[in-house]
Amino acid sequence: MSAEKRATTTTPPIRAKGRLFRVSLAGDVLPMVLAVALTIVRIVLAYQTPVTVLLGAGTEADDRLFANAALYLAAGKWLGPYGRYTLAKNPGYPMIIALCGTTHIRYQLFFIGAQAIACLAFAIALRPRIRSRWVRVVVYLILLYTPLLFTTTYFRRIYRDGMVIPFAILSLSAYIGWYLRRKGPVRVQLPWSAAAALGLVPLSRIKENFTWVLPFVLVCSLVMAVGWLKAARREHQGARGPIVRVALLVLPLVLVWSASEAVSRVNYERYGFNGTNERFTGSFARVCSDLSGIDTGEKDEGLWVSRKALESAMGASPTLATIRESVEGSWDEWDESFDGHEVYGDLAYWALRQGYYDARKNATARTASAFWSKVDAELRKAERTGNIAAKGGLRISQVAPPVGTTDLLPWARRTLDTSATLLRLDVLQEHLIEPGWKPVSPPGMFASGEVKMRVLLGGNTLVNGEVDDTSKKAAAVSAVDYHLGRVGIAAMRIMNLLLLPAIAALVAMAVRGRVKQPVESLLIALGLALTALAYEAATVWYVSYQLSVFSFDSYLLEVGKYSPEFYVVISMLECLIFAELAGLEHKHAR
Predict the structure, then answer these.
(1) Which of 63, 154, 155, 220 might form a disulfide with 59, Cβ 3.0–4.6 angstroms?
(2) What is the distance between the alpha carbons of residues 478 and 408, in angstroms, rounded to a whole number?
(3) Are strands 19-21 and 14-16 parallel, antiparallel or unpaired?
C-alpha cells in the first residue's frame, strides 16, 4: 500500500549530470503550480489597478517634479530646463517612469514584475536553509501579496516611496543568498553578485537615503571576505580564488558608485552642477548642514533652522545677507503652514531655496552652486573664529541637525514607540486602495500634463478625479485590492504578534541542538532587525518636527509615509524566522 502511495505522488526519477533527482507531485509540482497561478493573478490584478496622477497645487516638489522629469527624460531632454526643482531630488524614479513609457510597458506591470522577481530572489536565497518547497512558496507569496502594495500611498500614487520596495527586497535577498552560499564555488555566487547590483543601483538612485542598507551590505561582505581569506590560508590555497570572490563583492558597490558618477557627469554637462541632486550633495547641502548646526540655545528639536539661527547666519555671511529680503519673505510665506512664526524641519531648506530663486530669477545651477559655496565658506569661517556657536552631537544625515547627548534617550524611546505603533498597521490600513476616489485638484488644472503622463504610464490612470473609460472595471479591481489588503494586514498583524515568541522558540531549539547551523539564520535575523530599527530611528529623527506643531496622528501619517523600507525589512525578518520553524530544519540537526 505504501508503495502504491509513493507511486501516485512521485514521478519517475530524472538523471542529470550524474545526479539522481526525484520530483514529488505533492512536494515539488503542486507548490510550483500554486506559485505560478497566484503570480498570474497578482500581475493581472496590479495591471488592472488604476494609478493616480497628482499634478495640482502643493505637488511642485513631489509628484509634479517627478512627472516633469519623466516627460523630459522620455523626450530625450534629460531633466529639462533648469529651475528651483530640477535637481532637488534623485532622478532614479523618473527614469523608471520614462523607461515604462519608451518601452510601452505599463507602469503597474513593471512595478509588480519587479516585486515578483525580488520575492522570488528571497525565496531562492533561503533554499540552503529551507528545503521545503512549500515553505519557500509561502514565503514568496507572503511578500508578493504584501499589503503595502494594496495601498494608495505605495502603489496607486505615482510617487517614489513605493518603488523602493522591490529593490530593497532584492538588495537584501542578494546578500542573504550570497552569505548562505559563501562556501560554494564562484559560479554559484556570481548570480547573487548580479542580483545585488540589480537591487542596489536602482535603490541608490530612487531616494537619497540609500545608505540605510549599507551596514547590512558591508557587514555581510566583510564576514564573507574574512572567511574566504582564512579558508585560503588554512588550506594553503593560492590568492586567485579569494581575489575573484572579493572582486565579486566589490562589483555591486562599484556599480553603485559608477551610476552616481554617471548622473553627476550628465548633470554637470547639462547644468554645470557636479552632483546627483542639490539638496543632499554639493554646496547647498553643506549650507543646510551649517545652518542646522548653529546653536542658538533654543531647545525645540523641530526647529532645524530657526529665525534666530537664520539671522545669525546672515550676520556671519555677507553673501547670504544679499538675499535677506527674499529669504525673509519666503519664511513669512512658509511659516503659515506651521505656527505663523517659524518654519519647521527640512521645510526650512525648501523655504531657503525659494528665497534664493525668488531673488535670482535667472539663476543657473552653476551660479547657484557658486553662491552657496561662498555662503558655506563664510559660515564655516565664522564657526572656526567663534562668531557662531555650533551644536555638538551625532550626525545621522548631512542636512538633519545633530543628535545631542541629551536627545539620545528620548530619541531611542520614540523610535521604539513609533515602531510598535507602525507594527499595529492602523496607519497602513487607512491608506488601503478603495473603489471610491476624490480629486485632489479641480478638473481642468494641469490637464495637458496629466494626459501626457497617462500616455507615459501606459493608460489605466485616474485623471482629474475621473477614471478612464474602464471605470466599472477599475472600481471592481479596487474593491478586490481593498479586501486583499485587509486580509494581508490581518495576516501581517498575526505575524507581528508572534514574531518575538517565534524568535524565542528558534533560539531555544538552537540551544538544545535541534537546529542545524543556527548561527547563520540568527545572524541574518539580527542583521535584519538592527537594519529595521536603524532605518526607523533615522526616519523618526527626520520627521519629529511634526510633533512640535502638529498632532501625533499627523506625525504618524508622515513617519508612516516614509517607512516602506521598515515594513519590508520586518516582513523579511518574519518570513525568515517562521520559515525556519515551519521548514522543520531541526530534523537535520547535528
Answers:
(1) 63
(2) 43
(3) antiparallel
Number of independent structural domains in the chain: 2
pLDDT of residue 339: 87
Q: 415 in a domain, yes or no?
A: no
Which pLDDT band holds residue 436 (cuts at 50, 70, 90)? low
Averaged pLDDT for residues 15-37: 77
Q: What is the pLDDT of residue 460?
A: 78
Q: Which residues pair with 52 in a beta bridge?
A: 157, 462
Cα dist. 409→126, 337, 415, 508 in Å? 36, 30, 10, 31
pLDDT at residue 373 in the model? 97
Of 363, 398, 433, at which residue does a domain stop?
Answer: 398
The answer to whether 414 and 425 have CB atoms below 8 angstroms apart is no
Q: Give a yes or no: residue 412 inside a domain.
A: no
> Across the chain, what does the average pLDDT equal?
89
With cut-offs at 50, 70 and 90, classify the pLDDT of residue 449: confident
What DSSP string describes 341-384?
A: S---TTHHHHHHHHHHHHH-TT--HHHHHHHHHHHHHHHHHHHH
Please name every residue paired with 14 in a beta bridge, in sequence order, or none if there are none.
Answer: 21
* Sign of the dihedral through C-alpha 363, 368, 374, 375: positive
CB 271 within 8 A of CB 86: yes
Based on the domain organization, do 155 and 263 belong to the same domain? yes
In three-state secondary structure terms, 498 is helix
The residue-averaged pLDDT of 295-316 equals 92
Can you tell me which residue has the cell 523602493?
Answer: 164
Exposed, middle or buried: residue 434 (CB in 10 Å: 0-12, 13-18, 19+)?
middle
Using CA atoms, how far apart are residues 386 and 390, in angstroms rounded to an integer? 9
Secondary structure class of 578 (helix, strand, coil): helix
Quote the radius of gyration of the chain (alpha carbons, Å): 26
- How far is it, in rounded angstroms, from Cα 137 to Cα 39? 11
Q: Are residues 505 and 358 in the same domain?
A: no
Q: Looking up cell 497645487, which residue turns up? A: 57
| Residue pLDDT, tens place only, 395-424 | 888 888 998 888 899 999 999 999 999 999
Least confident of 3-17, 19-33, 131-145, 156-170: 3-17
99, 112, 107: which is closest to 44 by C-alpha? 112
Q: Are 367 and 507 part of one and the same domain?
A: no
Helix (H, G, I), strand (E, B) or coil at 239: coil
With the CA atoms of 556, 559, 562 and 564 taken in that order, what torsion angle do they form, in degrees rounded to the nearest 10?
-60
Quote the CA–CA distance of 396 and 378 in Å, as a whole number. 24
103 and 187 share one domain: yes
Query: What's this model's pTM, rounded to 2 decimal places?
Result: 0.92
Rounded to whole angstroms, how far apart are CA atoms 498 and 248? 37
Phi, psi values for residue 166, rounded to 5°: -65, -35
Rounded-to-integer distance, Cα 433 and Cα 148, Å: 10
How far apart CA 199 and CA 172 sit, in angstroms, is: 8
Tell me if 410 is assigned to some domain. Answer: no
Q: Are residues 212 and 351 in the same domain?
A: no
> What percentage of the chain reaches a pLDDT higher than 70?
91
Do 237 and 352 have their domain in common?
Answer: no
- The predicted-structure confidence for 340-360, as pLDDT tens digits, reads as follows 899 999 999 999 999 999 999
Query: Domain containing 304: what range?
Result: 283-398
Other Cβ atoms closer than 10 A to 244:
13
Shared-domain flag, residues 267 and 287:
no
Task: Note whether residue 408 is domain-resident.
Answer: no
Is the CB of residue 316 less than 8 Å from the CB of residue 388?
yes
Cell of 169: 527586497
